[in-house]
Amino acid sequence: MLPKFSSKAFLAPMAGVSDPALRLQCKKMGAGLVVTEFTSIHSIIAKEQQLKENMKTIQEFIEYSEEERPLSVQLFGSDLVALEKAAKIVEPYFDIIDYNMGCPAPHITQQMAGGALLQEVNLTQQIFSTLVNAVKKPVTLKIRSGVTSASKFLFRDIAEVAEDEGIQMITFHPRTVSQGYSGNADWNLIKELKEISNLPIVGNGDVTTPEEAKTMLDETGCDYVMIGRGVMGNPFLFEQINDYLKTNSYHEYSFKDRLDSFFEYLHLTSKYNIKFANIKGQAMRFTKGMRGGSSLRAKITFSKNLSELEQIMKDGYALSNA
Ligand SMILES: Cc1cc2nc3c(=O)[nH]c(=O)nc-3n(C[C@H](O)[C@H](O)[C@H](O)COP(=O)(O)O)c2cc1C
After folding, report:
1. Mutate to test the pocket of ligand 1, among 35, 99, 173 (most ligand atoms within 8 A of CB)
2. Torsional sign, CA 254, 257, 261, 267
3. Of the residues 14, 40, 241, 280, which should be mutated to test ligand 1's pocket, given the most ligand atoms within 8 Å of the CB?
């Protein structure tokens, strides 16, 4: 069974972005569910072997904290034996196992994983059945609509197979794989999926404001909304959505608040093994749209370590106070 979610707004899995520090911030701001960035089933197996030799567990590789719960781990890879093994390795630590069938990156689709699987109904069916039989935890799915515009309705068959095989929830980003992030997400397709499927549907794509979150929920009938790029450097969005859905109003945050929030993020990163390049990326996002932000970002690019980065952000903070 799926856990109970405290909010209708979820944080999207984002490689290099939805690290344990950002996830925790989003959780504290009211996200109903947070999802790890996608992880290869093969690296989970290889890492677990190494870690076991040092009496450690997979938690050292996919880092998280208890405060993030309910927490979903996202897997990719289509080798059925490896999939079963990897799912069993992560199962004890996570509340939901999510399967990625949306990633458009060529290095993923070329290994018959991510979005490429949308055109492989038979293999997909075996993947779902393998996962659902391998673990007792709920298995969920994240998909795009199709591979090309000519095949943009592939989601219909995949959703049906998912339901038959015991998948418990579908997140739907209605762009095709070949679209990447161009154009708009076609929310009409979310409405259609909600109508044809009995599963809870998480609508995803292009939500950046509380108003848009409400519109997606109202117009498509989806059960939850998932937000990716709109939360980058802006974890406040979860609180705003929750307030807006309850009271029709929400608190606005200033750039100073965003910088404060970056320092909170930075503080949280100290507990984890997050790559410095990723932390720099977050610093860039927290300054997006800020007055003087572009010169700040130019400095951020050249920072070589955490203390340099912190100093640059402190100078930026002083400026925003000036
Ligand atoms: C930098 C970045 C990394 C992403 N990584 C993942 C990932 O690991 N797994 C996944 O299912 N989707 C991934 N996505 C897609 C998002 O989860 C989401 O489906 C997409 O960004 C559309 O939602 P949005 O318009 O709210 O950003 C990524 C997106 C971005 C921008």
Report:
1. 173
2. positive
3. 14
What separation in Å is there between the alpha carbon of 204 and the centre of ligand 1?
A: 9
What is the residue with the minimal CA distance to atom 29 of ligand 1?
Answer: 14
Which helix H or strand E contains 282, and what residues bound it?
helix 276-286
Q: Which residue has the tokens 């997050």?
A: 274
Q: Which of 209, 226, 247 is the last residue of a domain?
A: 247
Domain that holds residue 118: 9-247
Residues 83 and 127 in one domain: yes
Q: Report whether pLDDT(321) > 80.
A: no
Cβ neighbourhood burial of 94 (10 Å; 0-12, 13-18, 19+): buried
**How far, in Å, CA of 322 to CA of 311, rounded?**
17
* Angle at the Cα of 91 from the Cα atoms of 200 and 140, rounded to 5 degrees: 20
**Together in a domain, 232 and 287:** no
Distance (Å, whole) CA 244 – CA 238: 10
- DSSP secondary structure string, 108-123? HHTTT-GGGGGG-HHH
pLDDT mean over 76-84:
97
* Angle formed at CA 274 by CA 37 and CA 64, multiple of 5 degrees: 55
Q: What is the pLDDT of residues 95-113, one digit of tens each?
A: 999 999 999 999 999 999 9
